[in-house]
Amino acid sequence: MKTSQLLLLATAVNGMIGISASPLALAAGESDAELKAKIEARKKEVKAEIAAEAAQKDGYYKEPGTYGTKRLSTPPPYTVNLSKTGIDAVRDITWLDVGFEQRTRYEHRDDDIRRSNPLPDAGPAATRSYAGGVDEPVLLKTRAYLGLKEILDPFRFAVEIQDSRRYNSRFAPDNRDVNEFEFITAYGELFFKDALGKDDLGNNRPLSIKAGRFNFEFLDRRLIASNEWRNTTNTFQGFQVALGQDKNDWSVDGLALQPLDRLKYNTDKPIEQQWFYGAIGHWRKWSKWITLEPYYLGLRKEDSGVAGERDNRDIIAPALRAYGFIPGTGFNWDMDAMYQFGRSNDRNSGKALQQDAFGFTFEAGYTFDHPWKPRISAQYGYASGDKDPNDTKNNRFERFFGFARPWSADDYIVMENVSAPKIRLEFQPTKKLSIDTGFGMYWLASDKDRMNNLFSISDSNNFNRDRTGNSGDYIGNSFDIRARYEPFAHVKTTVGYSHFTTGDFVRNRMVASNGGAAGAFADDTDFFYLELTLNAFK
Q1: What is the pLDDT of residue 344?
Q2: Phi/psi at 9 (nearest 5 deg)?
Q3: Cα 15 from Cα 22, distance rounded (Å)
Q4: Element (H, E) at 117
């Protein structure tokens, strides 16, 4: 490598000063043509060596590079192999992964449109109004992980405990913020590292069968996510089968799970008569620039028979995700499209409905060749809403178990009944500091369907929907900015701010929820947060 660099430097200098034959060539008794041929040959060897190193590390896998779509790893990113903790006594223990992390977040929310209060003397919880004002909660999330691998192969196991608490809030506790001392991972695994042979790069194609309790993320995280931002975690109980791994040219993940009901102070339990299932494919060999992920998801829930809770659904959703890079440029892109069919029902009346919904997202971005790695991107997302509350079809997109952060930093917007363009700028002034900022606008896909998160915490109500469509379809717009900084080893900090300006729909529903009082709403909301994360090992 050093010889090659020296030859290239000598050739460049000779060209600049007009020497017809390089000193190295003359000394070796070689012509310039012979020397150049050797240089080109060595350059090809170096490229091959770099490609081989990349293949060994990542194989066929390419990270999407789009905003908020990087999946959390398994084991989670706060963990480390025990042999790499720096403790001499355990430097030979390579078969155990450990982790311990504590996150504290202070929030300042002014006029949070997600919150509702009981109307005075109204009685039932369903009759609620918009709750304005300031809330300043402190959220604590503590996690610990232990995972055993290799030493007892094919048997492996992992456990992860999380404790989620909230203090200093003016609102009653809810399971978005509170879920005390809960196992969010507890599974056994049969892992056969080369059961399906090897791919063309020599990477093992394993077979993994897991049973137990899980939290994980797939695809672009908008439909299946642990919900890392939220103080509590999406968890499931059931089975997971993986054919292959991310390094391989192809792999398939199969899921058969029951979502867990997050109980604030008791042990979480599977939601009765509800199953979430799916198959997710990954095809990475078709093009080194493009990854294809065909998949389908399904959600089945049987009617409880209780008035107001007659949630009978059997939804099937085929879909395709594709992402990649444009060769020789800084452009990258990511798209995902899904159609949903099956059956559902009106939650209150129990009337049978035919599911007919669709959604898609698309993002394109460009990363400049600059030390700060600035990236500018544009995104558009759409998820259908119910067009007619009186017909026999349900057009509301089922968002499954995704998370809201790619849509809005204040947690107002989710992938349901929404049409949303957004632009974003990201840059990294230093290795320890990264900043991103964005501006988004939001409309209802159907002005006769609901806005999911409006007045939905802690108890949902009917004021977030206008079945006549007379409240309009413009939800509002938001500006957000976030800075992440790692001042020391084992310490991460984040500070963020979001300003949301309400649109006609939100303001009109606020008026309706407050009995027609025109002044009982906010023109905008503010959200500021400060976060500190401490990691024991990493």
Answers
A1: 86
A2: -65, -45
A3: 9
A4: strand 116-118
Query: Cβ distance 395 to 418 under 8 Å?
Result: no
CA distance 264 to 165: 9
Residue 315 in 3-state DSSP?
strand
- Which tokens in the block code for residue 365? 């971005």
Dihedral Cα 46, 52, 54, 58, nearest 10 deg: 180
Is 237 strand, coil or helix?
A: strand
H-helix or E-strand spanning residue 163: strand 155-167
Burial 400-424 (b: 16+ CB within 10 A, else e): bbbbbbbbbbbbbbbbbbbbbebeb
Q: What is the pLDDT of residues 95-132, one digit of tens each?
A: 999 999 999 999 999 999 998 876 544 444 445 667 77
Residues 6+ apart with CB under 8 A from 54: none
**Residue that is written with structure tokens 């990201």 in the block:** 426
Q: Which two tokens stand for residue 185?
A: 């991972």
Rounded to whole angstroms, how far apart are CA atoms 444 and 472? 9
DSSP 8-state class, residue 115: B
What string of DSSP letters covers 37-52? HHHHHHHHHHHHHHHH
* Short-list 481, 464, 537, 520, CA closest to 114: 464
**CA nearest 131: which of 111, 151, 145?**
111
- Weakly modelled stretches of the chain, pLDDT under 70: 1-30, 47-56, 118-129, 303-310, 347-349, 459-460, 516-522
- What 8-state DSSP symbol labels residue 194? T
Judged by DSSP in three states, 15 sits in: helix
The closest alpha carbon to 420, from 408, 436, 403, 405, belongs to 408
Which of the 8 DSSP states describes residue 70? P
What does the pLDDT read at residue 12?
A: 45
> Residue 95 has which token pair?
């078969």
pLDDT of res. 29:
61
169, amino acid identity = S
Task: Copy the structure tokens of residue 219.
Answer: 């695809």
The one-character DSSP state at 302 is: -
Q: Are 274 and 260 in contact (CB under 8 A)?
A: no
3-class secondary-structure state, position 463: helix
Cα separation, 505 vs 110, in Å, equals 19
413, 422, 316: which is closest to 361 by C-alpha? Answer: 422
Phi and psi at residue 309, to the nearest 5°: -130, 25
Angstrom distance (rounded) from CA 345 to CA 354: 8
Q: What is the pLDDT of residue 282?
A: 97
311 touches 303 (CB < 8 A): yes
pLDDT at 119 (0 to 100): 52
Please give the pLDDT value at position 20: 43
Backbone angles phi, psi at 223, to 5 degrees: -120, -25
50: which 2 tokens?
């770099």
Strands (E), 370-490: 375-383, 393-394, 418-430, 433-443, 474-488
How many Cβ atoms sit within 10 Å of the Cβ of residue 440?
22
Rounded Cα gap, residues 146 and 130, in angstroms: 43
Number of other CB atoms surrounding residue 215 within 10 Å: 22
